[in-house]
Design a protein that fits this description.
Elements lengths: L5 E5 L6 H11 L8 E5 L5 H8 L5 E4 L16 H7 L3 E4 L2 H7 L3 H13 L3 E6 L3 H5 L3 H13 L9 E4 L13 H19 L1 H6 L1 E4 L5 H8 L6 E4 L6 H8 L5
Parallel strand pairs: 1-2, 1-8, 2-3, 3-4, 4-5, 5-6, 6-7
Length: 249
């Protein structure tokens, strides 16, 4: 089963509007034709970036969302607003949201449902902390997060899963391709168990955790790795261009 690779850059809390525009303008001439590329700027830059990339193949993603369509929720952004500004993807359940802002599987599931209702595509993040990996709890943790975050959703093919071992995010440590593949294969097996083999063969599973130009080629050679959710290395055009054009000599 051929799955279109997706390389997504999560800019986190970086980039003013002028900086964001400079970055996407530097990326546009180098977009590959055989894979998808997305960027997730901060909320403040979404509209400007959307206007800049309109008519190009570069996709727009948001870093977070609230589950209600509208209402008295000071400081929150709804799926409707993200759709209106031009987003196609929404990152949900990132480990930093879980760590700093109390995100749990129940709220992740509500966000996934609300995003799907607006016709957007969730990028659902799952991953274990270092102590959990050392205790041999990796599979247990990612299963809980995957099933808890998706629940009884039927539109599984619209979901993108991102495996991001928390111990490898921003630390310079990277799961080896074999370690990443082991978890990706397990996640695909979980999807097959709950949603059937056809869906498991079509769903894309990204790797996130200190992805760099130096390791992307090796990671992408693994059977069940369908792309990358890139953090720090997506903030510089030079490094992100190399990552999104992996495999090109």
């Amino acid at each position: 089963m051929s799955r279109t690779p997706l390389i997504a850059g999560n800019w986190k809390m970086y980039k003013t509007i002028p900086e964001a525009l400079a970055l996407v303008k530097a990326l546009l001439p180098h977009l590959p034709k055989d894979r998808e590329v997305a960027v997730a700027p901060p909320f403040t830059a979404l509209y400007s970036v959307a206007s800049c990339i309109k008519g190009t193949a570069l996709k727009l993603a948001a870093q977070n969302v609230f589950w209600e369509r509208e209402g008295a929720y000071t400081g929150e952004i709804s799926p409707l607003m993200l759709k209106d500004v031009g987003c196609e993807y929404v990152i949900i359940g990132h480990s930093e949201r879980r760590q700093y802002f109390g995100e749990v599987d129940k709220t992740v599931a509500k966000k996934v449902n609300s995003v799907l209702e607006e016709g957007l595509k969730p990028i659902l993040c799952v991953g274990e902390r270092l102590e959990e990996r050392e205790k041999g709890e990796t599979f247990e943790i990612v299963k809980k997060q995957l099933i808890g975050g998706l629940g009884n959703i039927q539109e599984i093919q619209k979901i993108v899963i991102a495996y991001e071992p928390v111990w490898a995010i921003g630390t310079g440590k990277t799961a080896s391709p074999a370690q990443a593949q082991e978890v990706h294969k397990y996640l695909r097996h979980l999807v097959e168990e709950k949603w059937g083999r056809e869906n498991s063969e079509k769903i894309r599973i990204l790797y996130g955790g200190s992805v760099k130009p130096e390791n992307i080629d090796e990671l992408m050679q693994e059977e069940d790795i369908d792309g990358a959710l890139v953090g720090g290395a997506s903030l510089k055009a030079e490094t992100f261009v190399k990552i999104m054009n992996y495999g090109v000599t």
